[in-house]
Amino acid sequence: MFWPIFEKPMSTTTPTIDRNLSEELMGNSTCVDISESPVPGFLTGIYILAFILGLVFNILTLCPILQQVRSQNILGVFLLNLSMSDLLYILTMPLWIRYYNQGHDWDMGKFTCGVAGFLYYSNMYVSIYLLCCISVDRCLAVTFPLRSKSFRSSRLAWLVCLALCLVVMSLHCLVLFQDNLSKDGNNTAQSCYETYPMPRTVAMFNLLRVGVGFLLPLLVMGLCYWKILGHVKQSEGLREQVKRKVRLLSFGVIGIFSVCFAPYHLLLATRSLAYYHMDVRRYCDFERSVHFPFSCTLALSSLNSVVDPILYVLVSDEVREDIMPCCGRTRQDQRDNTKTLTTGTMKTLTSLI
């Protein structure tokens, strides 16, 4: 595989040392010795934890969510699609566990590497945009309850989810047709989606992912929760306990979203900008220095498949009621307790994301 030669910005000539280094990098297909990284054991543990907890939590919440979908609950439609996306990704985790346990050596073939990467990145941005859609839907339900009722429907929610999945997966089909396996320096090991230096097209696509796939949804979610919190604060018919719950849920979702996805996208943008603004030697030194933290942010982002089911329980009273029998309580007991805390209007407002 041949990589594009890096060039210094605002310069018409390339120093000899950089040209020689570029040729050397093209021959070795890497400028980072992944085998020397202390990451593998740590990452293996993170992915094992995410696999076990994510599988258990998603299966546990799947039946209650299906019940909400059958009752034409709009939130249930978004949560079901979010759960199915998480489960598809979780099923590929054993491949990543094997990869990191073998010291970043992918021995399962090019196609398997492409499919695993496709499901990983598709799940990340499907999850981000579904969380964004849920936030918009909750904002409309709270701030414009009468006007939004005319067009908020399960049918529209399904169409939005279908369009969203098609767009995200179509954009990420690129990973299925790329050669994502690369030799790790002078070793015989093959790395999957860890190519150094990154191709120019990948650097451009990374910046697009950061802007459209992370910053834009984060801005929309922030505006939605700002509107929701403002509406709840001005409402005199809500108890202070309910208002406090809405505030905690709103800040909690934004916080979880930022913790899972912000570190990865911050380093992704930094690496992509470094590609365009550093010479080859400085760029490779930079990539070596951030390889460990960047791998950690990848593992951290995979934990969204564990956190999402917890959000289902926090943001939906119906899902929480349906799942309580699994925890040793009857649904009727939970309903009796719920009635003592909130009215029907309060219940709608506390089902916020």
TrEMBL record:
InterPro entries: GPCR_Rhodpsn (IPR000276), GPCR_Rhodpsn_7TM (IPR017452). It is found in: Cell membrane. Its main location: membrane. One of its GO terms (biological process) is negative regulation of G2/M transition of mitotic cell cycle. The chain crosses the membrane at residues 46-66, 78-97, 117-136, 156-177, 207-228, 248-270. Belongs to the G-protein coupled receptor 1 family. This is G-protein coupled receptors family 1 profile domain-containing protein. The lineage of its organism: Eukaryota, Metazoa, Chordata, Craniata, Vertebrata.
